[in-house]
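Workshop exercise sheet. Pairs work together: one partner reads the sequence aloud, the other fills in the structure field after running the prediction. Swap roles for the next sheet.
Pair: D.N. / O.F.
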Amino acid sequence: MVIPLFARVAGFKIENAWRRGSRGQVRCTARLSRALRREEAERVQRLVETSVNGSEVVHECRPEETEDWYAKLTDALAGMPTRGERRAAVGERRTRRARRKAGANPPRFPEPAA
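Structure field:
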């Protein structure tokens, strides 16, 4: 018998929030491999705008923030302390907004010849 040490994300869905006043928000729903224990649910609910219902975690955010929230969710599920901002791996592309926040100006590459 295999006993998982921590719950894992089994499925991830992103939906547009069409209600009034959503202002470009999306709803992220993560289905987990098992229901969370009380201390795990408390750790996940510390994430801003996040709610836990059994084996589903729901979060509302802007579309460009979904990857950062996913990284924070997996850290919270593993019991790791959450980071303020996720660091990009070597060669990973960052969003324009994240580059502006970090103060880095991306190098301009010439347009390819047609």
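Discussion prompt: The first strand starts at residue 9 and ends at 16. What would you look at next?
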